[in-house]
């Protein structure tokens, strides 16, 4: 999604003076209560469909509140349509990721990554190495989504083969991926935050170093300690796993050319959709060259022909695909849902956008942010308001861009009135809006990463250390007045900010 386009689409934040704070919060409380009961009943299966309907019910509650506050139903539907339109890029990327995962499986790219990874990555340093690898890839590409869709999938496979918790591994992947996403000048959110706050990109990045480096350092230390406590069950059986992979696929270092090319395309600012499509097609070509037998078996044929090759690749791209090996553990690992496997996540995003759209249309998002802005009167209180606003909007609007845009607009004047440089705001938006989006199951980011990695948010939440530590770090710096940059000539503060 292009930043300028998104800003243009969201520059009108709906105000509704007739809506009080309790009316604005009522749909939020209702949604939380319904989701809590639904998860209690369904457990891990809640995301299979019931949570999606609960989000629609939350939207219905918000719509009723809106009608009582003189908001037309047509306006609500219009805002929902705009919200869903804003996720078009994300939905298409999800479909492309599903297709890419399918061709990268049947081509042997993912099995080859796992094969070499099992030999290189020692279980003791695996989690810390995962953070570093994902940080480097994400800084280079500017995209946590691309990192999850490429090396993230392979690292989950390696962890599964070694018997290391996939929840722990997903937390390490996302910690590294969001560190890189946050610090990369190629990242959309890293460009969006300073645009909203009123500062420039590189001032913003330099200022983020103060809170981000300590946070990623603590994250790495914790994962190093966790590494020494691991007793991976797969260690003793690594040779058997490697033999099973070799028996099922033709392993070749040349297969690394495809993911490297995709990463290079992203670094050169190729639109993610184009890069992922090319990655899918290159994976299909590699499958025909290196794994003709696998492609034929996916098509249900004994040998590779033009027809069976076409059918095998289309099956891998679109529907469930499973490669059978001699190892039961690998049988579960070497499976892909293709584009169809992403439909549940897309369904969740659409329903979340319905709730977020209606909340915006009735003026609830603006009311909540304004209440948080007026809740505190000190400098620390202003930072706290920003963090709470970003967290609340990630949960209610279900989109990290809105969690940056809305508080950015609402709080920019308050920071100036307090005599605070705009980079204080842009850093707070990233520390609390960008990185925490992945911790909300129905947020577009939480839904995406959970779907791509195949790990529920509840499983990786505790281990996404960088993501939930970042807001605390920004508040710690504010509380002790560490690196809080002042304007040269502070504007006179209004009464509420004194």
Q: What can you see in these coordinates?
A:
With 498 residues, the protein is mainly α. 72% of the residues lie in helices and 1% in strands. The protein has 25 helices and 2 strands. Strands 1-2 form a two-stranded antiparallel ribbon. It is globular, with a radius of gyration of 23 Å. The model is unreliable at 1-11 and 489-498 (pLDDT under 50).
Write the layout of secondary structure elements.
Layout: H1 3-10, H2 21-42, H3 50-68, H4 73-86, H5 88-106, H6 109-120, H7 126-141, H8 144-162, H9 166-183, H10 188-197, H11 201-229, H12 238-248, H13 257-267, H14 272-290, H15 292-298, H16 306-318, E1 321-322, H17 328-333, E2 335-336, H18 343-361, H19 364-373, H20 379-396, H21 400-417, H22 422-434, H23 444-453, H24 457-460, H25 465-479
Antiparallel strand pairs: 1-2
Based on CA atoms alone, the radius of gyration comes out at 23 Å
Question: Uncertain runs with pLDDT below 50, 5 residues or more?
Answer: 1-11, 489-498
The biggest sheet, with number of strands, parallel, antiparallel or mixed sense and barrel status, is:
2 strands, antiparallel
Distance between the termini: 39 Å
Spatial ordering of strands, largest sheet: 1-2
β-sheet strand percentage:
under 5%
List keywords for this structure.
498 residues; mainly alpha; globular; disordered C terminus
Q: What can be said about this structure in brief?
A:
The chain has about 500 residues and is mainly alpha-helical. It is about 70% helix and about 0% strand. It is built from 25 helices and 2 strands.
